[in-house]
Write a structure and sequence with these properties.
This protein is of the alpha/beta class. It is built from 6 helices and 5 strands, in the order αβαβαβαβαβα. The longest helix is centred in the first third of the chain and has 16 residues, at 3-18. The protein is globular.
């Protein structure tokens, strides 16, 4: 994805944000997973819990290519980053490490089917704004992690 395409994507996101009600809280979430069905599943779960919240709007952008995601994230800071660990070209832990140099306080959820001591430690490196979830994750645990990092009160079971 070229810089122009990233700028067009951001322009589209900003136009959605600008159409919001002034009483609405907008959270920008970026998801990075090379498997589209994984990010689609997380997106559905977030949309499901957000449907009952009139004063909260989620603007979710997902990428399958972690290198394109890094280019985007260097320009535009989200409120939450959700990333897989094992991806081609650039691993999730390297993506998180790169982005944390730019936005040290950015909350991150890392989802992985390959939780090892090494990748858990590489994500946490004294970072209290990071949570690791194993695949497959329980939707309740995923929503709990989002609530913890964003300070929201979404509920899976309402």
């Amino acid at each position: 994805m070229s810089s122009t395409n990233i700028d067009e994507l951001m322009s589209d996101i900003e136009s959605k944000v600008n159409k919001m009600d002034l009483d609405e809280k907008v959270y920008k979430i970026v998801m990075v997973d090379d498997v589209k069905t994984i990010s689609s599943s997380m997106k559905r779960e977030l949309t499901f819990v957000n449907r009952k919240k009139e004063n909260i709007r989620l603007v979710i952008t997902d990428f399958q290519d972690p290198e394109v995601a890094v280019d985007y994230l260097k320009k535009y800071k989200p409120d939450l980053l959700i990333s897989d660990i094992k991806m081609p070209y650039l691993s999730g832990d390297k993506l998180v490490e790169t982005i944390k140099k730019i936005y040290p306080d950015l909350p991150v959820i890392v989802v992985t089917g390959f939780a090892t001591k090494e990748n858990i430690l590489s994500v946490y490196k004294s970072d209290k704004n990071s949570i690791i979830l194993s695949k497959p994750w329980a939707p309740e645990r995923f929503i709990e992690a989002v609530n913890q990092l964003l300070g929201t009160d979404f509920s899976w079971t309402d």
